[in-house]
Amino acid sequence: MWTCSKCGEKIEDQFDSCWKCAGPPVQKGSARPTARRIRSFFLFGILFEVALITVAAFLPDCWLQVEIRNFALIVHYPFLVAFGNANDALSAILGLLLAMTVLGTMWGVLIYWVTRLIKFTLESASQRQRRLVKIGFCLFSVALVVCAVVFNLPATPISFTPSPEVKTVVDGNITFALDLYQKLKDRPGNVFFSPFNISTALAMTSAGARGETEMEMTNVLHLNLPPGKLLPAFKTLLERIEKIQRWNRIVLKSANSLWCQKDYAFKTEFSRLVDENYFAETKSVDFKNAPAAAVNEINRWVERKTSGRIPSIAAADQFTPLTRLALCAAVYFKGKWQHQFKARDTKPAPFHISTNETVTVSMMSQKGHFKTAYSDDGSVELLEMPYAGQDLSMVILLPQTEYSKSDVDQPGLPDLEKELTTKNLRLWLAKLDQAGAHETRVALPRFSTTQEFNLTPELKSLGLKSPFSDLANFAGMDGTTNLFVSDVLHKAFVDVNESGTEAAAVTLVIGKSKGMDSRFNVDHPFIFLIRESGSGSILFLGRIMDPTK
Q: How many whole angstroms separate alpha carbon 78 and alpha carbon 375?
């Protein structure tokens, strides 16, 4: 191949000159790789393999290290399967050498063809185009380095100072959360729900309540502010949630919607109120003639807003020709621990469900600096595990079995549940917030659970009776007293693993027309909550009796 010595353009014949600049031709060397070049590229491949393993093993804990480690595991998976159970050192060494040889060759071939492609592209381009490519490559490299540095800087909390009105709403939400937990605790097994999500859905409903119905909802939900201050406070909390996002580390989304019977007249004022203060989407469906289509549309909305973790909330038989309105609230959270567990440290370990029953769980383990605290009588130990950015954290309340007063087969937990009041929780969390982080060995089971409730009986037992009866007054919604609440459905999901936590919850309110120590070892049942640190809001609350279910 002949090219111009001045501008690099291709020349067909050695006796021709360049058609662009009249420069003389020069002959390019053979593109066929020599033995020396092959050895060089093989060496480059080996060096890349060593660099990949080194970075995956020794890069400090961060999102980039997790991505590189996952990539390395995928690439090396066949060799880990083949030689992971080697019984002698010789087999392990031979497996390592084979892996290095095969992968080094693979990386070398890849590097060779990439360089060939780049070289061919540059040879085919004009001098100006080559200059632009080089500048673009330099800018891309600089941007990549800047992004890697920025995203690996320690994340600091997003500042938020709650107003007195926001604090009042948060305190009311926490009190309602614990009231509801006391009603749900008698259910067998695990319990998990989103009190913030349920409060939001019911608060939207209460915005259309009047008279005794409004009074009952205000008392049960502990909405201790007049509407003029309550609505802006809820709006502030929802805006705060939208701001807590960390690229590739924290996703926290809240969404609300109104599903109205298409030919039923709702007050424009009510739709505007929930849109402005609860950011609720208003949609028209046909519950009367096409309930299945309405259910499918609601479930698709729920699935989309919870990133597929909750594929459905309602069934067609839950809607009747008398259904006029469905209020839906969804919250989705996926966060990575500030200090992530390493998968290699997760081992099988016993978890004592009761004095008579033990199961084997995947117990995650790590040593790090965490805040811990004890209740005044020492019967409860608390641990805070922050997520990236420290705007959100999981708090684990672990009963100390030696302080148990209950003669039951789950020592400690019934006592903790009795003591779980707003006053006590506030005192415990205050002690935890004031504590300094110290080196602690944490052992926490990996767990995942999905819970589904019809909360109508529990809400009635808390005093919310008229909204579910003929005495209901939701004149703020449609200007009549023809509406009542038939069901309050709630579904929640949580998954806790080495990298972090994923949780989602949905609440559906259906309205119808009338007659129209240095160790923190979580090896027995515990209570946990996920809270937003700036306002103190409890987003999720639950109890784990059996991590395997």
A: 50
- DSSP assignments along 184-224, one per residue: HTTSSS-EEE-HHHHHHHHHHHHTT--HHHHHHHHHHHT--
Q: Which of 90, 180, 156, 228 is nearest to 420 (CA)?
A: 180
Closest CA to 521 of 433, 400, 344: 400
pLDDT top residue among 320 and 67: 320
457 sits in which H/E element: helix 456-461
Q: H helices within 395-448, ranges in order? A: 413-419, 422-434
- Tens of pLDDT, residue by residue over 136-182, are 878 877 877 776 666 555 566 778 888 999 999 999 999 999 999 99
- Measured distance CA(399)–CA(536) in Å, rounded: 22
- Please give the backbone phi and psi of residue 436, each rounded to the nearest 5 degrees, phi first: -90, 145
Distances (CA, A) of 376 to 358, 373, 429, 528: 30, 9, 12, 19
Per-residue pLDDT, averaged over 263-278, amounts to 85
Nearest to 455 by CA among 198, 270, 207, 252: 198
Q: Which residues contact 502 (CB under 8 A, 6 or more apart)?
A: 309, 333, 334, 335, 493, 494, 495
Tell me the β-bridge partners of 3. 10, 26
pLDDT in tens, 174-225: 999 999 999 999 888 899 999 998 998 888 888 888 999 999 999 999 988 8
463: left (phi over 0), alpha (psi -120 to 50) or beta: left
Q: Taking each helix axis as running N to C, give the angle between helix 268-278 and helix 195-206, from 0 to 180 degrees, rounded to the nearest 10.
A: 150
pLDDT tens column, 479-515: 888 888 877 888 888 888 878 877 777 777 777 665 5
pLDDT at 30: 46
User: Would the CA dihedral through 455, 460, 465, 470 be positive or negative?
Assistant: positive
- Number of Cβ atoms within 10 Å of the Cβ of 79: 16
CA neighbor of 190 nearest in space, from 526, 539, 538: 526
N-to-C CA span, the chain = 69
